Amino acid sequence: MPLHERDGRLYGPGIFDMKAGIAAAMLAMHALQESREATAHVVMLWTADEEIGSATSRVLIEETARAASAVLVLEPSLPGGAAKTSRKGVGEFELVVRGVAAHAGLDPDRGASAVHELARQVLAVEALQDPDRGITINVGVISGGSRSNVIADRASAQIDVRIRAMEDAARLEKVIRDLRPTRSSIHLEVSGGIGRPPLERSAAVVRLYEQARQIAAAIGRDLREGSAGGGSDGNFTGALGVPTLDGLGPEGDGAHAVHEHVVLEDLTWRAAFLAGLIESLG
Predict the structure, then answer these.
(1) How far is C-alpha 225 from the chain's CA centre?
(2) Alpha helix ranges (H) inside 127-263
(3) Sign of dihedral through CA atoms 197, 203, 208, 214?
(4) Is 262 helix (H, G, I), strand (E, B) or coil?
(5) Crossing angle for the helix pair 264-281 and 20-34, nearest 10 degrees?
(6) What is the second-level CATH architecture of the domain 4-88+198-281?
(7) Which candidate, 68, 63, 45, places its Cα nearest to that of 232?
(8) Which pLDDT value is given to residue 40?
(9) Residues 137, 128: contact at Cβ < 8 Å?
């Protein structure tokens, strides 16, 4: 994926998610320092494990955010350049089913299929979805069994859970952990949980967005807002009650894909907008 420019777009690995956002922030701070307008105390925190759950960086993120009056997240903007005023929370669970192995032809009554039980449990988990409340559930990886003529004594599923409101987190965790097998000879083991809380569109988030929208309007742009189904490290800071505005990175497309790119004409505007917003927060 060599870096290259074509038709007003700059292509390259990670350029949209989210190298261009970091570059725009650096340019904004450089401009403020050059103009002697850097009145705000700014901390830039770059982490490298967000895509795999932020396990090593979450404590640092939360400690840094507690000392801040606002958090600006340079994740990619929504299509059309909109900011993100809400994001879904993310949970990851693993369901392991332990059955009883037996020969499928000679002793079928002596076995208890973990695979068959897993199929029933997947349907039970799927029934927990509530799109109107923003609750989505996806069983993305399943495994089990050894041969077609052996009743499987083990099967497992990895479950992705997305929520819009934190009030749903504890309820869903309890329901999933309380899943019960349909046969007494089968046992279920559930691990995991809601690891990334939702970024909710609170009054504090709305106030920060309106401030950003005014800055954008002053330089001729209409900064719109929207929601994202994926999570970011802004979910952690928003859950602490710190005003958080996400998706402030440049416009583009193709995150994690071979056509990943940013729109070149958006880069300069983003840097100017960020400089103005930081100055106003100071």
Answers:
(1) 17
(2) 167-177, 203-218, 234-239
(3) positive
(4) strand
(5) 50
(6) 3-Layer(aba) Sandwich (3.40)
(7) 45
(8) 78
(9) yes
Residue ranges with strand state E in the chain = 4-6, 9-11, 71-72, 83-87, 89-98, 102-103, 136-144, 150-151, 154-163, 187-196, 225-228, 244-245, 252-253, 261-263
**Stated length of the chain:** 282
Residue 205's identity, in one-letter code, is V
pLDDT tens-digit readout, 34-93: 987 667 799 999 999 998 889 999 999 999 999 999 999 999 999 999 999 999 999 999
Q: CATH 3.40.630.10 residue ranges in the chain?
A: 4-88+198-281
Measured CA to CA, the distance from residue 274 to residue 252 in angstroms comes to 17
| Bridge partners for 77 per DSSP | none
Dihedral-angle region of residue 262 (phi above 0 means left; psi in -120 to 50 means alpha; beta otherwise)? beta
- CATH node for 89-196: 3.30.70.360
> 89 pairs with which residues across the strands?
163
Provide the token pair at 20: 């261009």
What DSSP letter does each residue of 103-148 carry, written as one string? Answer: ETTT-GGG-B-HHHHHHHHHHHHHTT-BGGGTBEEEEEEEEE-S-T
Whether the pTM exceeds 0.85: the reply is: yes
Beta bridge partners of 152: none
**Rounded to an integer, what distance in angstroms lies between the CA atom of residue 120 and that of residue 276?**
55
Cα separation, 170 vs 59, in Å, equals: 21
Determine contact, residues 1/238, Cβ cutoff 8 Å. Answer: no
Read off the pLDDT of residues 87-144 as tens digits, 9 standing for 90 and up: 999 999 999 999 999 999 999 999 999 999 999 999 999 999 999 999 999 999 999 9
